[in-house]
Amino acid sequence: MFKLLRKMQATRFAQKSFTCLFSFFLSHSIVFSQNTDSLKQVGLQEVTITATMAGDKTPMSFINIKKEQIRKNDFGQDIPFLIKNTPSVVETSDAGAGIGYTGLRVRGSDATRINITIDGVPINDAESQLVYWVNMPDLSASTSMIQIQRGVGTSTNGSGAFGATINLITNGLQNEKFVNYSGTVGSFGTVKNTIAFGTGLMRNGLSVDGRLSRITSDGYVDRASSTLGSAYLSANYVKKNTSLRFKIFTGNERTYQSWYGIPESYMTDAKLRTYNPAGTEKADSPYPNQVDDYSQTHAHLTLNHSFSKFWRINASLHYTKGKGFYEEYKAAQKLKNYFAGRTDTTDLVRRLWLDNDFYGVVWSAIFEKNKWQSTTGGGWNVYKGDHFGQVIWSEKDVTFAKTPSNFYLSQSNKSDFNIFEKINYNLNHKTSLFLDLQYRHVAYNTEGGDRKKRNINRTFEAHFFNPKLGFVVDNQRGMKFYASIAQANREPNRNDLTDAELTNLPQSESMIDGELGLKKRWKNAELSANLYYMHYKNQLVVTGSINDVGEQIRVNVPKSYRRGIEIEGAYVVAKWLEINGNASFSENKILNFTEYRDDWDTGAQQPIEHGKTDIAFSPNVVANSAAVFSILKNEKNELTVTPSVKLVGQQFIDNTSNSNTVLPAYSYTNFQILYKTEFRKVKNITVKLLINNIFDQKFANNAWTYRFNSPSYDPRPDDPYARLETGSVYNLTGYFPQAGRHWLAGLSFNF
Fold this sequence. Notes:
Elements: E1 16-21, E2 29-34, H1 36-50, E3 62-66, H2 67-72, H3 79-82, E4 89-93, E5 102-106, E6 114-118, E7 121-122, E8 143-150, E9 164-170, E10 178-186, E11 190-198, E12 206-217, E13 226-239, E14 242-256, E15 291-306, E16 311-334, E17 345-369, E18 372-394, E19 406-426, E20 431-448, E21 458-474, E22 479-490, H4 494-499, E23 509-521, E24 525-546, E25 552-574, E26 577-599, E27 605-614, E28 621-633, E29 638-648, E30 651-652, E31 662-663, E32 666-679, E33 682-692, E34 700-709, E35 722-726, E36 729-737, E37 742-750
Parallel strand pairs: 6-9, 26-34
Antiparallel strand pairs: 1-2, 3-8, 4-5, 6-7, 8-9, 10-11, 10-37, 11-12, 12-13, 13-14, 14-15, 15-16, 16-17, 17-18, 18-19, 19-20, 20-21, 21-22, 22-23, 23-24, 24-25, 25-26, 26-27, 26-28, 28-29, 29-32, 30-31, 32-33, 33-37, 34-36, 35-36
């Protein structure tokens, strides 16, 4: 979306101005001015974030999205939709409009390979390695900066990063007291209300700020409704060179399931396009409570201390509690799978539960003197989770206790320890060298059974060494060049281990990432290019292989790669017009891919050699462009109009490069109007309107597929998802349609 051409850094001077040029959506000059006290506070706060953040002397591609831009583009949609116009990012939405279950891919890498932290604390689920943004509604309202490091990135806490590392920094210390309201209304019954407050810094060094949010939406897809609530509270204490901060943020989501997609033939039908099969196993009408219901609470206690102008440390204790279920109506179920001694079948309603705890500590110590900057850091994190299922209703006479008994239960434990050392050395006034070494140890075990009555006792342990090396040359006249090489490793996720046979457990994945970048700045423009080559060893992909109960499993493929170029640019044409954009061109391949295809007649699997194929969900082109028209701008008023366009190239839905299972290329155009003013004591009154997909394009940004051979049975009359490829080869494929033209309108102000 937008990018700083110069990093804003706090200093010890009484007054200092910084001019920053944003290159996405709002690329005009902005002057920041801070006084001595607030600079000290910002400096203490930055200790928390710099340990895992990239800076001017980091030889990797990254982008910073600052607080002002987050607020201007925030309409209550999830984080993937706030960062969707940054390079190489593709966003997805199950409900079709950015509220509910959303996801993102960076350089074609899925969410399990994207490391997410909040103030340096890992957020990825320890087992699935996913981030469920829906569990943290309106998180953007409490976020002051988002940094996206593409590729391996610098060492951080949590899961290994292959596609990107995304650091979210929550709101820092606030000098002045405030009350803020922001609200959104829009298509599909979307309503968001947020109220935030802060005491400002009091004489005793204390400050408190908080937020309450509620978001509701019916979703574009039928019944894909969301009811989301969240709260945030932060208490800060500052004294001389020390700050102590406690924050807690919690969220609850209740979303009607929309996880299944639609058949291809429904995509062009205005009525069938929003079809949702969830809950339709219930006769006559869909089951009304086919929902996902989950609550998650995060608590962080952070200490920052500066020993001297050379040394500073920070440490954060953290704890996350998550608990919830998804409820589903299941028809014609065999009761023997739920209750011992029963042989009949019935319709029933079940809840599949997850109850987990995640806690640990992350820390860093930073030393800066003369030509050296050294950051030593690390973390130790523990996860404990229970998976279990309960039947809450049955059509037949099945007696339930007051507390329903579990028909399956598994318990998981995971520990994750890492330590890293980062060194920046200024060789001279132009050249700096970068070295980053990380050791990470992971141990995981799960015991018990799953809902299919399988024993899933598994144990996994790995030791990873992740080195990174590079340099930056900055001639300080607008030209910068950098190069780096980095290695990353990551462990299989829970499903990779539990779905695999005990005799053939998957191996860890490894990747070497080479980056080469050039940036050039002029008075009114910027242009940058970043070349990358990412070589994988043992990447885990779906091949069609199945386990003993017929579920597809991910298998290590020996060699695969991604290579490409990312180009970004911005040009201030005049005081009233800026244009900006980015484009990513890539090639993403698996060498010697073997597909395993089910035969419905024999029950066997047929191996098919494909040779070199495209990696699934990896478009060769992703491009964004925007024009910012400043219609009005003075001390009290600002009016901007911003049309923007996004293009995503064709993607294969699986790893076979089969033209029968393709997600077609798509593009859409958004149009945003923003007016900002002040009235007496009411400050920062902002009215904004966003028209999404203004030309009403019909497209899908996500899909699934399953290919099989069926010589004696044609499934098409019985299943609308079935399609004939050739001869006796069929596929079942579902697409996730996105909303056509729709709008969101926002109002915010503070006093």
